[in-house]
Amino acid sequence: MSTTEQRVAVVTGAARGIGAATAVRLAREGRAVAVLDLDESACKDTVEQITAAGGRAVAIGADVSDEAQVEAAVARVERELGAPTILVNNAGVLRDNLLFKMSANDWDTVLNVHLRGAFLMARAVQKHMVDAGFGRIVNLSSSSALGNRGQINYSAAKAGMQGLTKTLAIELGKFGVTANAVAPGFIATDMTAATAERVGMGFEDFQKAAASQIPVQRVGTPADVANAIAFFTGEAAGFVSGQVMYVAGGPLN
């Protein structure tokens, strides 16, 4: 694929975990990748991993919940890599607590990063997809969308991501743009390590307990999720849109 034909992808929350694995995976697919996170310097390792393998990548710092920063970030992607036609909305935060303990600020923070951020990013990038007659949007949902104790904000945000995805698929399909969601189950990341700490368990024990409840008898890795995302962003997935894929090691009750 020549540089002029190379698809440009934007992956948010790509400094570490699922986002970093996705950025690297998409680069292996021949994509130029904008590695976007709140702290630009934190994206250095992901970018270096891509460029060391011969890929093209740029680190971009932006708060996805800030409209002006999103617009500036997408404009920079266009200048430095080309018009983006692949978007992975992965940026997210946790502010776990039970309902009676949860502050309005913790609710707003989680909803703003996940849902407002995905909306702003999709709105900013869709114009390039429509112009190209090709686009792929993948939103990160979660098995927590089905409900999870202590995560009323996160569960609401991740359920909202599914509704957002299906509506994007309906609105943008006629322009050659697909929208799908990936909903991970238990994935070993910094986020799940933080959850283990919150509930007072060591991370290894936390993973073992989770694995015992998963049909494949292991927890997931960021690469497992990145592989699913790569499928949705591919040329061959043009007739798959508005879907939610649970990457959870088995069916969920």
Can I get a quick summary?
45% of the residues lie in helices and 16% in strands.
Explain what this protein looks like in three dimensions.
The mean pLDDT is about 95. The N and C termini lie far apart (about 45 Å). Strand 4, helix 4 and strand 5 form a beta-alpha-beta unit. It is built from eight helices and seven strands, in the order βαβαβαβαβαβαααβ. Helix 1 packs parallel to helix 2, helix 1 crosses helix 8 and helix 4 runs parallel beside helix 5. The chain folds into two domains: about 200 residues, 3-Layer(aba) Sandwich (Rossmann fold); about 35 residues, no CATH class. The longest helix has 29 residues. It has a seven-stranded parallel sheet, with helices on both faces. It is an alpha/beta fold and about 250 residues long.
Q: What order do the helices and strands follow?
A: EHEHEHEHEHEHHHE
Can you identify the CATH superfamily of the largest domain? NAD(P)-binding Rossmann-like Domain
Strand content: 15-25%
* Overall SS class: alpha/beta
CATH top level of the largest domain is Alpha Beta
Shape: globular
**What is the helix fraction of residues, given as a range?**
40-55%
Gyration radius, rounded = 17 Å
- Strand arrangement in the largest pleated sheet: 3-2-1-4-5-6-7
The chain-level mean pLDDT equals 96
**Tally the helices: what do you get?**
8
How would a crystallographer describe the biggest sheet?
Answer: 7 strands, parallel
CATH fold descriptor of the largest domain? Rossmann fold
